[in-house]
Structures are given as C-alpha cells and as structure tokens.
Amino acid sequence: xxxxxxxxxxxxxxxxxxxxxxxxxxxxxxxxxxxxxxxxxxxxxxxxxxxxxxxxxxxxxxxxxxxxxxxxxxxxxxxxxxxxxxxxxxxxxxxxxxxxxxxxxxxxxxxxxxxxxxxxxxxxxxxxxxxxxxxxxxxxxxxxxxxxxxxxxxxxxxxxxxxxxxxxxxxxxxxxxxxxxxxxxxxxxxxxxxxxxxxxxxxxxxxxxxxxxxxxxxxxxxxxxxxxxxxxxxxxxxxxxxxxxxxxxxxxxxx
Length: 255
Fold this sequence. Notes:
Number of helices: 11
Structural class: mainly alpha
Helix content: over 70%
Mean pLDDT: 90
Radius of gyration: 19 Å
Number of strands: 0
Shape: globular
Strand content: under 5%
C-alpha cells in the first residue's frame, strides 16, 4: 500500500483547524504562562543572580522553559487528538477507511509536532522582549527541537490510545512530565546540586533533554550532547515501535 499524501494531509488539516479553533487554550495560554516565567525569573530574579556556566541567568533558563512548554503541549495535543475519536466512536470511520498507519501518524503526530514548533517559535520571540540571548548552534537547536517535538507527539499518541478517561489523559503531562522538567535543570544546572542529588538528578531522563537543548543554545551542558541526542532518538524509536504494535493488534482501538 502506497503512502497517501492526501489522506495524511486531510487528518493533518483537521487537527490544525481544531488547534486554531481553540487558540486561546492551545496557543495563547502556554505563551502567556511562559512569558510570566520570563518576567519573574528572567527579568526580576535573574537580574540579581550570578551567571551560570558563564551564561546570564535570565538567558540560562530559556532552554528549560522552552522544553517545559514543548513537552507538555506536544504530548497533550497528540493525546487529545486521538482520544476524542475514540471517545466519540468516530475512530471506527478512520479504521475502516483505506488509511494506513503511516498516514494516520503523519496526520495526528505531524499536527501535534507542528503546534509545538509554532509555540516554540512564539516563546523564543517573546523571550527576546525580556532577555538578551544568542543561539550558538541554531541548526542543531532547530533539529533538536523538531526531534523532541516529534518524539513527544508520538508519546502523546500512545497516551491517547492508552487513556480510557479524561482524568487519565491529564495524569502523565501534569503529574509526571511537568515535575520531571522542573527537576531536570530548568532553573539550575544539575552540576550545582550537592551530592548525592547531582547523581540522582541524572536518573531523570528529562534532565538529558534540557541539557541537550541548552548545549545547542550556549555550548554548555550537564551531559554530553551525543548522549542527549541518542536518548531522544531512542525514545522516538521506542514510541514508533509501540504504535506499530498497537495498530497491528488493535489494542484499545477496536475494543
């Protein structure tokens, strides 16, 4: 079966239209929340803080705040996008249509990742209003952000298939991803933590993602960039395999 660009684009267009219909919730709200972080921690508190690794504190927290929004929004968008057709029963129209797994993923995951990238661009532009910063490796930063967006959109897709209630849909982003991102070095370098907490912090996979994005911005990192990239690619691969198994077995889709 050949890849149908028309089918994938139809799903992608529908999901993007849904995002823009709820722009206040899906775009304006996270941008406003992140802007407040820049005002409080970047401008007010950051002006009184010492540079971290040679980077002014206000600029130092930008990659962490960007990662915080990117993980939460791409996961939530993708999970909600596939959960709603399951909740309303319209998923059977999709399953009975001549649409393959690749087209389905390209539509749902592509739209969720696109929304994450749009948010990332708006947040970076907004940060410029409050904090001076330069990106040392812009190409690496762009590739890394796209990899993270795609990985967590796939993760959100898995979450949306697993969840059987709206409560479960919000558990992972709110109770796991957000706390792990805060504890993953968003506002500090994990090298500054006292022993043994610096070693404990490395058990948090989100710390590797924040460190990798921070390296692409300022050339400083808590862990080697190759490790961060490898972990991100590994997570993307695992999520892709899980989704392939789900579509092959019909788990949660045909129940």
